[in-house]
């Protein structure tokens, strides 16, 4: 329609502009995400070449499967009691309908695709700079230990996935635009540094997914190896889940014989009812507060019965730090702490690994969680284990049809009560696993449809020898194990855009091989 007034390329220009608006808004603005998705569909309606759209769409199996996944949400309302929640959930997932429809019906050419991807990379780069500078130089009282606050505009989890996706796209551009190779390599280095510093495990997992995706792409032609590699992440997840839920504090026993006095002749305090563990040792035994207080006040201006820089009790941080080092919590043990250790304790670091930068600090936190699995509240990994156990029980009772997309939260709440879950109300959330969520929502068919879509998409991308979308899809394949990626606007928009950009036949990228 607009071509009559503004020339033959008007709708093509508007189509690219709409995708650029969405790509630019992903890292920081939900309004732009919505405008971009609506813009793309509206432009198709105005252009009005419906027969052409249908001819393109009906041949595109991955696009049809993705649209069917959205439609399954509509069908699932038939056996949902909570229609209000179901409709809200459906509204969040509209990009699953809008973007594959828009981009399969009107695919982008190679040049336009590069423009949209370039806008995405540029926007992510800009926001990483804003996040980093604001976090480290304009913190305004926010604790540096709270790394989640580093992502200012969207969830730190979703943003970590965007950073990894931008890293992969930058590597693609390295091969496409040789003139800018060194600048792009510097950009990749920055994105990897940001991923390390931000400590978001989803980002690390997404990065692992990317590397794994390259391996699968290289091995796809070997049928047996292909299916082994495709199944391995699911087998590894199930095995890890079983291992983590069968190990833990219950295997450790409190020592039978504990010393009564320190080497200085003062009595020890032992709390044998508190099973907190640090580095494989019980924290709340072998404590002599009189000796610790006397020695602490000789070397620190922080009150012994006060708080560290993170607002935690000094004594709690001190006990854990000394326990990690294998020291008794008495005067003799305290004298073995150096100035660096004292300063770490004042800063609120409970062990030397927590004081390290980047992902090492996150791994230290995970170690503490796994050693203290009797208290999941406030600990992301332990909470996820509870979510997955609860979700698995819901599936056993609703194996074929699920509970319906509107009743997922209600089903979790009922199961938490039935299981007498140790999670308190504020932490009683949904599955944090997209595969489980789809099974719980739509039954076995929803789970299998999700797997069918990914396999169909990977197969099609390999047929085209298009490694970029093949590898990008592994960001989602892996993140789906630990996140409800499609339950937020940023997550579903990121997934729908990066998948749908390549879902049609028009982009030809086979000349960009992995190197």
What this model shows, in words?
This protein is mainly alpha-helical. The protein folds into two domains: 3-55 and 72-242 and 427-500, no CATH class; 277-357, no CATH class. 63% of the residues lie in helices and 1% in strands. It has 23 helices and two strands. A two-stranded antiparallel ribbon has the order 1-2. β1 (277-278) and β2 (281-282) form a beta hairpin. α5 (61-76) packs antiparallel against α21, α11 (201-219) packs across α22 and α18 (380-397) packs parallel to α20. The longest helix has 28 residues, at 110-137. It starts with a helix and ends in a 15-residue tail after the last helix. The model is unreliable at 509-515 (pLDDT under 50).
Quick tags:
515 residues; mainly alpha; two-stranded antiparallel sheet; 23 helices; 2 strands; globular; disordered C terminus
List the helices and strands and how they pair.
Layout: H1 3-6, H2 10-25, H3 30-47, H4 50-57, H5 61-76, H6 83-92, H7 95-105, H8 110-137, H9 156-176, H10 181-198, H11 201-219, H12 223-246, E1 277-278, E2 281-282, H13 289-299, H14 314-324, H15 331-334, H16 339-347, H17 359-371, H18 380-397, H19 408-419, H20 434-442, H21 444-463, H22 467-479, H23 489-500
Antiparallel strand pairs: 1-2
Helix pairs in contact: 2-3, 2-8, 3-7, 5-7, 5-21, 7-23, 8-9, 9-10, 9-11, 9-22, 11-22, 18-19, 18-20, 20-21, 21-22
């Amino acid at each position: 329609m607009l071509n009559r007034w503004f020339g033959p390329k008007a709708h093509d220009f508007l189509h690219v502009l709409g995708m650029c608006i969405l790509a630019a808004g992903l890292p920081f603005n939900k309004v732009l995400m919505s405008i971009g998705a609506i813009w793309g569909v509206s432009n198709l309606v105005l252009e009005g070449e419906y027969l052409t759209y249908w001819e393109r769409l009906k041949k595109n199996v991955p696009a049809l499967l993705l649209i069917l996944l959205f439609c399954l949400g509509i069908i699932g309302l038939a056996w949902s009691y909570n229609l209000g929640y179901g409709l809200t959930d459906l509204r969040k997932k509209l990009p699953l309908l809008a973007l594959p429809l828009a981009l399969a019906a009107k695919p982008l050419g190679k040049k336009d695709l590069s423009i949209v991807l370039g806008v995405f990379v540029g926007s992510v780069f800009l926001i990483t700079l804003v996040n980093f500078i604001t976090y480290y130089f304009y913190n305004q009282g926010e604790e540096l230990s709270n790394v989640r606050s580093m992502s200012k505009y969207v969830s730190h989890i979703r943003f970590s996935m965007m950073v990894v996706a931008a890293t992969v796209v930058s590597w693609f551009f390295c091969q496409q635009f040789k003139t800018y190779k060194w600048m792009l390599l510097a950009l990749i280095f920055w994105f990897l540094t940001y991923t390390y510093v931000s400590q978001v495990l989803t980002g690390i997992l997404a990065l692992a997914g990317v590397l794994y995706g390259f391996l699968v792409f290289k091995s796809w032609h070997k049928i047996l190896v292909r299916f082994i590699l495709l199944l391995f992440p699911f087998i590894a997840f199930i095995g890890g889940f079983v291992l983590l839920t069968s190990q833990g504090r219950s295997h450790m026993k409190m020592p039978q014989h504990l010393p009564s006095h320190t080497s200085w002749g003062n009595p020890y305090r032992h709390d044998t009812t508190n099973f907190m563990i640090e580095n494989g040792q019980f924290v709340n035994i072998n404590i002599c507060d009189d000796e610790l207080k006397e020695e602490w006040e000789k070397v620190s201006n922080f009150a012994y019965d006060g708080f560290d820089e993170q607002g935690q009790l000094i004594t709690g941080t001190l006990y854990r730090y000394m326990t990690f080092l294998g020291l008794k919590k008495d005067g003799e043990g305290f004298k073995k702490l150096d100035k660096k250790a004292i300063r770490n304790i004042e800063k609120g670091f409970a062990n030397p690994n927590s004081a390290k930068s980047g992902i090492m600090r996150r791994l230290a936190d995970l170690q503490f969680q796994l050693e203290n699995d009797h208290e999941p509240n406030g600990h992301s990994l332990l909470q996820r284990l509870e979510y997955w156990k609860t979700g698995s029980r819901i599936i056993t009772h609703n194996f074929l049809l699920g509970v319906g997309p509107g009743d997922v939260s209600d089903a979790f709440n009922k199961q938490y009560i039935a299981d007498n879950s140790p999670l308190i109300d504020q932490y009683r959330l949904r599955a944090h696993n997209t595969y489980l969520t789809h099974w719980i929502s739509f039954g076995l068919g929803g789970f299998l449809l999700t797997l069918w879509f990914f396999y169909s998409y990977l197969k099609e991308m390999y047929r085209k020898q298009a490694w970029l979308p093949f590898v990008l899809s592994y960001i989602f394949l892996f993140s789906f194990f630990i996140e409800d990626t499609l339950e937020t606007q940023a997550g579903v928009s990121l997934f729908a855009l990066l998948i749908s950009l390549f879902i049609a036949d028009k982009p030809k990228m086979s000349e960009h091989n992995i190197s």
